[in-house]
Every structure is written in structure tokens, then in C-alpha cells.
Amino acid sequence: MATVSTPALTDLAQQVESMDLHARTKRNFRMQYRLATHTLIPWLDALNILRGHAAVCEIGCGEGGVVSAFAQRGASFALGTDIMGALLDQISSPLAEKLGLRVTFAHHDVIGAFIPDVWLHRFDVVVLRDVIEHLDNPEQALRNIHRLVAPGGTLLITFPPYTSPFGGHQQLLGTFAGSIPFVHLLPTAIFNAIVERGDPMNRDEVKRLHSIRCSADRIMQAAKNEGFNIIDEKYYGLRPVFRWKYNKHIPVFELSRLKKFSFVRDLAMEAAFVFKAGT
User: Fold this and answer.
1) Residue 82 counted as domain residue
2) Are both 156 and 169 inside the same structural domain?
3) Whole-structure pTM over 0.70, yes or no?
4) For the chain, which terminus, N or C, has the lower number of CB atoms within 10 Å?
5) Residues 86 and 138 in one domain
6) Count of domains in the chain?
7) pLDDT tens digit string along 207-259?
8) Collapsing DSSP states into helix, strand and coil, what is residue 55?
9) What is the domain extent for residue 54?
10) Could you report the per-residue pLDDT of 130-141, keeping only the tens digit for each?
11) Given the DSSP bridges, would you call strands 228-238 and 253-254 parallel, antiparallel or unpaired?
């Protein structure tokens, strides 16, 4: 990608909204970008661990709204990876170019793919937003991610624990049953019957999540095992992303003061962590 100047700190989501793009692309970019600018980046700033010209990698970047916010902020190198190569080639990369951003996009599987030497221990910040719960082996993913993070660098993870109201992503089924909180915690045979009545495009993914069953405690332990030290953790009853996802003034409801209780960590709609890589 050609080198271009970083644009002024304008609302890139507004620019995307004016483009001739599919409504889903506009919504997803808006959600990702504004979550980064209003929640993720300010969180890192408050912890005094985000340098102005940090090298940043977002794993599972989708349309690239989060990594675009870091690029706009002045990242010295911004990389977005995803297993959906067509999405990156057809939407994410052209969109970043239209916005005048210096972002590199790469089709990559953080669990099974070779990690290029140029990425090794390069990134001051690595972000996984709503990704870790989809990975068949989160422990292996964190092992590989440690090879991406620079010594003393930061890993930011957000995701809905499986035991949260919609942690099974049952809403993807597109059915009335899929709109019911905690329905994914029914006995497996009953839930599988519900899944089979849902959208065929999403059945396998919902079943995968049911087998992975990612929890906050599991991610914290796996990160610790791979040499990451916890810097901060937050839990939400209502997720920050809801406001930008639904474009409504939905309040953020934080539960972090109650994080010592395991039921809070299990039932919170979002668990969010900032880790520091050991030197």
C-alpha cells in the first residue's frame, strides 16, 4: 500500500456513512471504530501504556474499524489480520485507502498459520475484540500471540463469556428461541434441537462456541501461563459496544467492582482485559 499522510482526527465513521457501501459494512465499521475511539483507546491512555506511535496489530479485524482508529491515532505500523481474506481484499483494505490510512491487512490464522519473521515481537499493542471466544484453542492462540507482542507490550482482549446471557451467540440463529437469554445453557440435546431450527449459515458456529465454552477465568489463566501479567480487568452488564452497534443511547453498565465474585465474571455480558507481556 502506498504511503499516505495520517488524516486529522475526524470521525471516520461519518465519512464511511457517506460512501456507497453496503449497510452492514457501514454499521460494522461504525461499531468498531467508535468503540475504539470512545472506549478501547481511552482505556489504554488511562493506564498510561499507549505510546503515540505504537505498532498495533488487531487480530480478527473484520472491516478494520478498530485498527483504523489506532492508525488515525498515529500508529507507526498498523496491521489487521483476519481469516476472511475476501473481506480484507474487497472491503477492509480499499476502505482504509479511501480514508487515507496506512493500514496493512493480512489473511492469517493466529492458531495454525506461520508467523512471518517481520511480525515477531514487533507490536506494542495487540487487540482481540470479540475474537478469542471463537477460537477452537484459545491457549494455543495466546501462545502464538505472545510471539507477536514486543517485550513489555500490551495485549487487549474483550469478549462475552460463554455463560453470559448471549454468550452462545444464539441470536445468530435468527429464531425466537435464539433471542432468549441463557437458552444456550439448556441441556445439550435440547439446545442442539434449537440450533437445528436456526439459520443454516450459523448453525456450525453456534455449535462450535458451545464446545469451546470460553470463560473469563480460562482466558486469565491461559494468559498467565503464556507469560502475560494482568494490568486491568473490567466486566460489563451492558456492553460499551451496544451504543455503537445499535446506534442508540444505551448506557454502559459496569460490574468491575464486583469482579471478585465468580458469578459476576461468569454472567457479565463482556469481560475485558489488559495484559502486559513479560520481558
Assistant:
1) yes
2) no
3) yes
4) C
5) yes
6) 2
7) 999 999 999 999 999 999 999 999 999 999 999 999 999 989 999 999 999 99
8) strand
9) 14-161+228-277
10) 999 999 999 999
11) antiparallel
